[in-house]
Amino acid sequence: MAVRPQIGIFGRRNAGKSSLINVLCGQEVAIVSAVAGTTTDPVRKTMEIPGTGPVVLIDTAGMDDEGLLGEKRVIKSREVIAQVNLAVLLFTGNFLGSYEENLIRDFQYNEVPFILVHNMSDKVPLAPEIAAEVFQRFKTDVIDFSCAEPENLETLIALLMKNLGPSPFKTLPLLDGLVSEGQEVVLVCPVDSEAPEGRLILPQVQVIREILDKRAVAVVLQDAQLPGYFKEVAQRRRSVPVLVVTDSQLFGKVEHLIPPDQPLTGFSLLLARSKGDFGTYLKGTQYIDSLKEGDRVLMMEACSHHSTCEDIGRVKLPALLRKYTGKNIHCEMISGLDLPRRPLTEYALIIQCGGCMITQRQVLSKIREAKKFGVPVSNYGMAISFMNGIFHRAVKPLVP
Asked: Are 261 and 273 in contact (CB under 8 A)?
């Protein structure tokens, strides 16, 4: 799955959010009705924006929804805010009230760029004084628009492109500053029950692609093949690899199969540097040594998949934590973009996966919430390397 920038469409019921999605996509992908509250759960649709590429439009429920069910819809819609790269707020009739202003505060808190769209201009045009007030108060773009008569659609799309920026979803290349043309990189890719049938996992594919783009050489091995490979290196029948990158679960094993001076890191660590908060991970990992009996640790995994006995987040990491600390550590797991069942303050540590299946903003929003409550955050690969006693070796190639 490609990680694409997300654009959230927000506003009151019947402000025209679903109609706007349909106009932007050029087809009826969202249900439009005069009945307030037609959109319930957030609905996602991918479209192509010229010059930007594929983006995901998210149609949310009205923020003024009522009743017990309506409140749950609003909560779901607010959860979307932290996930998006750009928010589009619709308002009508030249009126911005508490619902709109509360949303704008949420956008600002989550550091989400936003624009305002005054919809239904065919019925009530945007007053110049309202446009000036919006710009003065919120320092953002505002456009008068009509889904019924979208004559300035190109102008709206230009505003979306402008506020998304040139590359809002591009992250630091995984191998930035680590590999040059002609150099050899060894990738240790185990084939076990967690590996997708007939395929490599996404971080492995991404690293191989970057190696090819750099005109370097990718050597893909399983751990059992490492001794033979490095025997050839020692006999100078092969060039010395500039880096070995391993699946995190093999850190302890791979370390003993390669020369002690060979630079070594993991796929998860490359992802952590590319799209996470690497400095926060570095500090947070040290807290593993401070865990106490009965502490809760939250595993945050970006993707959802069927759990097996070799599952890293649900099985292996919790077992390793208990073995390393010698304490009864309570581990909980959340997948995808779900929220934890407990307040974050009840966790002594959060361990985040590499985040290959979500955007950088979605990864950083999770970390930002944890930091807000003073909860240390680590990364799958960093935590595993730490508990295998090779943390400093694994992060050394990635620290300037």
From this structure: no
**CB hemisphere CA count around 208 (13 angstroms):** 12
Query: What tokens were used for 348?
Result: 């002594």
Amino acid at 50: P
User: How far lies 12's CA from each of 60, 104, 394, in Å?
Assistant: 10, 13, 49
How does pLDDT run across 100-119, given as a tens digit for each residue? 999 999 899 888 999 999 99
| Cα maximum dimension of the chain | 80
Q: Which domains does the chain have, with CATH numbers?
A: 6-164 (3.40.50.300), 184-269+393-398 (3.40.50.11420), 278-390 (3.40.50.11410)
The predicted-structure confidence for 152-193, as pLDDT tens digits, reads as follows: 999 999 999 889 865 444 567 899 999 999 999 999 998 765
Residue 3: pLDDT above 90? no
C-alpha–C-alpha distance, residues 347 and 378, integer Å: 13
* Strand locations in 43-152 (E): 43-49, 53-59, 86-91, 114-118, 142-144
Distance CA 83, CA 360 (A): 9
Record the pTM.
0.70
pLDDT per residue as tens digits for the range 350-367: 999 888 777 777 788 788
Q: b or e along 164-188 (b: 16 or more beta carbons within 10 Å of the residue's beta carbon)?
A: beeebbebebbbeebbeeebbbbbb
Per DSSP, the three-state class of 304 is coil
Report the 10 Å Cβ neighbour count for 334. Answer: 17
